[in-house]
Amino acid sequence: MKEKPQDITFHYTNEQMVKDLIAITPLSGSVLDAGSGKNKVWYKNIPEGLEKYECEIEDGVDFMEWDKKVDWIIGNPPFNIGWKFIEKSCEIAQKGLAVLGNINNFNQFTSARLEKMKEAGFTLKHIKIVADKRWFGRYYYLIFTKENNNLLSWERKTY
To answer: What is the pTM (predicted TM-score) of this model?
Structure first.
């Protein structure tokens, strides 16, 4: 028996969730939605008065090739390139980055990777835990800024 294809909207971030997450993010200046998707829900909800940009590979704009510096990067990155997305964000974001991901994304933040982020000037400002009845488990909205506010500590040695 052939499986019924999953509705693509299953993967879209709930718009009210996006509005609530953007509301706690200290956005300013220029903002890049680095993976806007077909519904462009993050991009559409960037507050008025901010300079906004978007990348969507299906629209011919690949975030991994983006080279313009911006103040903020936001969104729900593709889970299959989670760490590469964060690394790229640290290269081009001048003030902060805020990303939504599941526990697998959260687990990518090893002590070595957190050190790399710290060397790039980014520290964790806020974690917001959210759920969507369509998705399995909890999701974590992580806000990193170039402020001296690190809420995380880590150990490089393995026990």
So the answer is: 0.86
Q: What is the 3-state secondary structure (H, E, C) of 24-57?
A: CCCCCCEEEECCCCCCCHHHHCCCCCCEEEECEH
- pLDDT tens-digit series, residues 63-112: 999 999 999 999 988 777 888 999 999 999 999 999 998 877 778 888 88
- In the chain, the DSSP E strands lie at 30-33, 51-54, 70-75, 93-102, 123-130, 139-145
Residue 78: half-sphere exposure toward Cβ, Cα within 13 Å:
14
Spatial neighbors of 115 by CB under 8 A, at least 6 apart, are: 154, 156
Question: Can you name the CATH fold of 8-145?
Answer: Rossmann fold (3.40.50)
Write down the domain spans for the chain.
8-145
